[in-house]
Known about the structure:
The structure is a homodimer. Chain A is of the alpha/beta class. Chain A contains eight helices and seven strands, in the order H-H-H-E-E-E-H-E-H-H-E-H-E-H-E. The complex binds zinc ion (2 copies).
Amino acid sequence: MSFSPLLQQLITALRCLPGVGPKSAQRMALHLLERERESARHLANALHEAVEKIGECQICHTLSETPVCDICADDTRDKQVMCVLESPVDLIAIEQTGGFRGVYFVLKGHLSPIDGIGPDDLGIGHLLERVVSEGIKELILATNPNVEGEATAHFIAAQINDADVRVSRIAHGVPVGGELEFVDGGTLAHALAGRRTLQRDIK
Amino acid sequence: MSFSPLLQQLITALRCLPGVGPKSAQRMALHLLERERESARHLANALHEAVEKIGECQICHTLSETPVCDICADDTRDKQVMCVLESPVDLIAIEQTGGFRGVYFVLKGHLSPIDGIGPDDLGIGHLLERVVSEGIKELILATNPNVEGEATAHFIAAQINDADVRVSRIAHGVPVGGELEFVDGGTLAHALAGRRTLQRDIK
Ligand SMILES: [Zn+2]
Ligand SMILES: [Zn+2]
């Protein structure tokens, strides 16, 4: 005896959500069908719309419903200061501190040779192109404060050969080994303010 | 600064899942859009299909894609022994023990005067009707072993006035205050085997 085919299909599909194991997928499916059918219908539509209509910003690569996101389209932002992040969720976290008025570049991850993720997969070529073409004066590397994030930051720093571009790393106010997305706004604002210039590995 | 409208809509919609707060809804939405678009599309379809096509069995009220569920339609089951449950998930748990060959009645919850949930909302009238019309010899009350489940079991027991119907309650092998759905199969099988006849409150 097991669940009916459609119920089993729903339970399996819910497993794609991060942190959802077999037991919680089962609870979620039954909860929706027993008590939240209207919400389940709404969730199905929201998923469908999001997947079909949310793409990424051509300029900074964050998630965006328009070809150019609101931040890149905002003329009041300081376009000479660029903050490099691993994920759109980190962009939101930085924006919520209210302490940054520059622009962004979202890498979508970090270098991971073991998984075959190299500079091209992260769009580092496009990043370097923007640094030159937009006359960036400061590049703040705000990848995660863990081994992979540090390695990615140092790799990018090593590519910048223009002495007029200040390359900085957010200060270690953020907990080492943690993930930016879980850091509170105050710590994050502090880490941004205390950023330091990185020593160039390649001069 | 906040998320784009469609992304915000998805994050809000994910909150309908049990145990999902604002932070995990955000992580889920971004995870799906950044890395699991195909799975998200699949989940949208699974939700849609489940909501449209899964109804309930006319006889036992468990979730079913057909008017009569597989168990009620199975002629090899002992139709004179009926097990009363609070939820379809409990039915699956009992079936998985392999120790029960009778039929079921799913109440979908428990009596809760404070929430305005009375006997009619649980279909107790239909249950009593089945007890008579199907010549049930034993009614096993397997509502949750907590205060509400006990009250519901005693309410039902008090309605059965036919001395030929044995009314039993699953044994307290199940942890008091717990929920059936989280009990392991062995304990559940033991609890079923050790069921005792309930004293009648009304004779
Ligand atoms: Zn942008
Ligand atoms: Zn049935």
